[in-house]
Write a structure and sequence with these properties.
135 residues; alpha+beta; four-stranded antiparallel sheet; two-stranded antiparallel sheet; 3 helices; 22% helix; globular; 4PPT_N
Length: 135
């Protein structure tokens, strides 16, 4: 998941980290066994100011009942009706999105699903959630 500030709007509460310092990653206890670690990195040669990239491996076979509730991610009805692989992809993507927005400005924001099925980001943030096999 990649997120970037599009404009400077007031943040509802102060960031949980000092400016210029990288905040700690989400604790393992906040994550599902199917997606146990989130990694902040930037694979490109130049940094993009105001942008954060968070990714993580996930294993659909390790998704268990209650993971969405344990991770405080709401499971939409369309995802409830889907297979475990799709549920794990959705959960992993939303966990990365929440961590990316937290690292960006301290907000714990899990994007909802819009009418067009795209993630709904805060007004001052744009982002992208993507996945591949196990990543």
């Amino acid at each position: 998941c990649v997120v970037k500030r599009t404009q400077m709007l007031p943040v509802p509460f102060p960031p949980t980290h000092s400016p210029g310092k990288m905040p700690p990653m989400t604790r393992l206890s906040d994550l599902s066994i199917c997606c146990p670690e989130l990694i902040r990195h930037w694979p490109l040669p130049q940094a993009l100011p105001g942008a954060v990239l968070v990714s993580g491996h996930f294993d659909p076979l390790k998704l268990v009942e209650g993971d969405f509730q344990r991770c405080a991610v709401q499971m939409p009805a369309s995802i409830q009706r889907s297979v475990a692989k799709r549920q794990a992809e959705f959960l992993a993507g939303r966990l990365c999105a929440r961590e990316a927005t937290r690292q960006l400005d301290g907000r714990l924001h899990v994007p909802a699903v819009g009418e067009d099925r795209a993630p709904v980001w805060p007004a001052d943030v744009c982002g992208s959630i993507t996945h591949s096999t196990g990543w």
